[in-house]
Design brief:
single chain; 8 helices
Length: 218
């Protein structure tokens, strides 16, 4: 039997998908599926990407400290893919009672409820929301500022950020070789994408204690 533990659930839907063609929606969700696969391979876990409600999707992170990396990675891939469709992402942290059978369509637990509920109540124009029993003002502020910066990425900046987020070494030379550009070009793109500021934010989330305050040792 699955034992509850702290996870992060990312629930998303596409922005203004009703104005897009069915093919464009499918292409965008395929891109998100591929991004989930790539991120999972980089971090040795199955995100169990599941599509639902036409333009909705969901993944899980068994390592909740990766939630900011994952959200940025999904946004970066959509920006780089230039499908013309963006996504909202509601991140819920907490426990899970079950991770589903074949996919997440029958998964359940507090983290899933928090993620889904906050997606339905996200403010107009917002891209990322974060909630959970261990989440406080500081963590939400990090997410707000990360969203603000990521919203301004160009396609080339997003492409470089996506590779950086899943690179084993994060060496600019390796990213440059993959993109077929110079090391200087990669440095310029990452700097323009706000990487120096993201690194501290990512470290803070990665090392956050996701145990609810009332369950922590006295």
């Amino acid at each position: 039997m699955f034992k509850p533990k702290h996870i992060a659930v990312l629930t998303g839907d596409l922005i203004k998908s009703r104005k897009a063609s069915t093919a464009a929606v499918d292409d965008t969700l395929d891109l998100l599926h591929d991004a989930a696969t790539d991120f999972g391979k980089a971090h040795a876990q199955d995100l169990r990407f599941t599509r639902f409600r036409g333009d909705g999707w969901q993944v899980i992170l068994r390592t909740p400290g990766l939630l900011l990396d994952a959200a940025l990675f999904f946004i970066a891939n959509l920006k780089a893919g230039e499908t013309g469709i963006a996504t909202r992402i509601s991140i819920g942290t907490g426990t899970a009672e079950a991770l589903g059978t074949r996919d997440l369509s029958d998964a359940t637990g507090p983290a899933f409820f928090v993620s889904g509920d906050h997606l339905d109540h996200m403010g107009r124009g917002r891209m990322i929301a974060l909630a959970g029993p261990s989440i406080g003002p500081a963590e939400r502020a990090i997410i707000d500022l990360a969203e603000c910066i990521a919203a301004g990425w160009t396609a080339t900046q997003a492409e470089a950020m996506a590779l950086y987020l899943i690179s084993d070494t994060q060496r600019h030379e390796d990213i440059a070789a993959t993109l077929g550009v110079t090391r200087q070009a990669v440095q310029s793109r990452l700097s323009g994408a706000g990487l120096p500021y993201f690194d501290n934010a990512r470290y803070a989330i990665q090392h956050h204690d996701f145990t609810p305050p009332n369950q922590r040792p006295a």
